[in-house]
Fold Leucine--tRNA ligase.
Amino acid sequence: SDRYEAQEIEARWQKQWEVAAIDAASDDPADSRETYYCLVMFPYPSGNLHMGHVRNYCLGDAVARYKRMRGFNVLHPIGWDAFGLPAENAAIKHHRPPAEWTYGNIDQMRAQLKRLGLSYDWSREIATCRPEYYRWEQWLFTRLMEKGLAYQQNAEVNWCDPCHTVLANEQVVDGVCWRCDTPVVRKNLKQWFIRITAYAEELLSDLDKLTGWPEKVVGMQRNWIGRSTGAEVSFGLENSDATLDIFTTRPDTLMGVTYMAVAAGHPLAQQAATSNPALAAFLDECSRISTKEADVETMEKKGMALGVNAIHPITGALVPVWVANFVLMGYGTGAVMSVPAHDERDHAFAKKYGLPIRQVIAPHAGDWDIDAAAFTEVGKLIDSGAFDGLPSDEAKVAITNWLAENEKGAERVQYRLRDWLVSRQRYWGAPIPVIHCHDCGAVAVPDEQLPVVLPTDLQPTGGASPLTECDAFRHTSCPRCGKPAERELDTFDTFMESSWYMNRYTSPRNGEAMVDADAMKRWAPVDQYIGGVEHAVLHLLYARFYHKLMRDAGLFDGEVVGSEPFRNLLTQGMVLKDGTKMSKSKGNTVDPKAIIEEFGADTARLFTLFAAPPEKELEWNDAGVEGASRFLKRVWRLLEKLDAASDTADGDVKALRFSIHATIRKVTHAFEQGFAFNVAIAALMELTNSLHSFNPACEAGKAAYREGVEALATMLAPFVPHFACELGERLGMAKMAVVTDWPAVDESALEQNEIMLVVQIQGKKRGEITVPKDAGQDVAMAAARADAAIARWLDGMQVVKVILVPGRLLNIVVKP
Ligand code: ANZ
Ligand code: ZN
């Protein structure tokens, strides 16, 4: 039939593409095409694609297809972030092992992705729950252990009871678990960490290289890493040989210290509590809040005196030591010198508990009522003995030097970033490749015993991980001394898997190494990464870190591949409905499957790309979907005029060719400048209108018309590939639209219709305008007024004379 039958057409073309293997990335060294790596964030196999996925993957597909048409050898892979809690929770609910649930979901979602006609190189598909994948992360971890970059330590950590696991700092959002929204509690546990802080400086300075990232994301990472410079100061303790060390960014205020404050977890507080039940109760209360700073900022500030005095390093004065709930154990040294005169928090605390306030910094001009409020700016030193009169910046140096000379302190750089807590007390994750031996301690599993395979047939119950009761897994022998030993029963945080998948795609079946150095050279780094902004800190920070770890493990040449994994980043906006985020919990989801069944994949694709710029929110509406469907039918009807015999005259061929090539220029520009697909599609809609109103009658007219419809089919291919192929075939195009070369702009078609005029006002050049070649005075004047730079010379003026020199000049004479 001659109707547009989406379902039939889409099935047919998908088969043809598969046969022709047009989506495969070529590793052939003889392939001379330039490479391009386009990556979308891989999905968690929850069971069903949601509209956020659809949007993400349609954006990526448009990029990948466009680049192929521009002659690039494109890598566009997909896979599954397959470990994690939802699988375990589903397993508990349905009494089936999580592996079964996971692989079943993968099959279902793979079919959904294929139905959308996304041009993935399926031969590179990976699932992170497969031992062939996670063995390399285990391997890298043992290398990190050798280098001291992975270590086990007792630490105060965030614990989520319902999830029965610890959480990384990044996974605590406003004091609650990122997964289940339950308030987290602090616990002291022995956990595995990776020393991301050793890379803090590089992670920070390399942000400057990320010119292809949204500034907002770069800013969020910069804040998260949080570099501060200051000093570490050692206070003595009365009747003790021990010291109390603090970190401060304001050593210039040292002479204003009136008390000290330590965190609840600080050894000094813990020790004092052994003989003080009220204090012990207070410390217990403090442990019930998360260690996240944002929460600490907003809660009520409370404290208690420890009954211990510290000794001021310069004056020797005694200052009382308090415990305060706003001092974090995990930052600096877990202790602060309190200067109520110059810090708001210390000021409020001093007021509340009647502690002295001692001003040592004065404003450069004017007075300050120190009892009313802290003076937190820099200024000049007063009441500071030998340092009196110095401005703050000089005093910082002078006091730090004095401390260094007297061995009571040193300059110090401090990062907000904490080491990455990677162990989880959960079952459905990659086993941590460690064996605990009574004699040898924590021993890394040797290479030849990797992977440590997770038993996949266990049944989780919601309490402790079933690994803890799996004797076959648990009992083993020590790789070092051979005596009976036990495996580590924690598994890795799933962010471990998602941190390096982008590099694995370059050699996904590699059984010899984590990645192949040559493949990395060919493909990495990712040219364009596309995904949600919610990963701005977590995933995107860990992936940057992992890339550097892999480089330093000698897996690829950092000089050639670079030190950053993602050259350009596009963070897509959310999909909304009725103005709020589309989500299951709100019950306002739109099922992509239903749209595809009713309208076809191309309509769904077109709508998601047309309705909003990629980085903006996309508001779902049914009228928009119907509009997209109507547009495709309208393009389809262009076929009717192809061979229609007509005895009338041609339409304006020049005008049509102008419109065709202006559209090519516009659409190409939209692709090259930040993927403004909505702009590109709007231009294609305009071209469709021009073609509809054109009458092809004679040879020249028919040729121009065909040129236009072919260009349209070609440029539609990245967005609606099935439709474009069908249209192309019916037009008799030589190749499938999706493998046709991207159309080139015929500059002569543009020149013919447009000329540039210099605009003079009172004899002075004030700008230039572009007008149709045959434009008269009125058209030229309208263009001049529409140009902001020129219009401001005409504003409020009366035009007394206009002289148009065709092809050259528009001369305007005005008076006030
Ligand atoms: C004395 C002082 C005087 C401070 C003053 C500030 C102003 P940033 O910039 O975020 O690094 N601090 C240090 N360790 C802390 C911890 N574990 N928990 C809570 N607060 C801590 O902040 C560094 C400042 O935060 C340090 O400088 C310290 O207070 C406090 F007029 O020392 B300051
Ligand atoms: Zn041993």
Remarks:
- The pocket of ANZ (ligand 1) is lined by residues 228, 247-250, 253, 326-328, 331-332, 334, 336-337, 339, 342-343, 414 (CB under 6 Å).
- Residues 234 and 418 are 22 Å apart (CA to CA).
- The chain has five domains: 6-128+495-581, 136-195+419-492, 227-415, 637-749, 753-815.
- The longest strand covers residues 150-160.
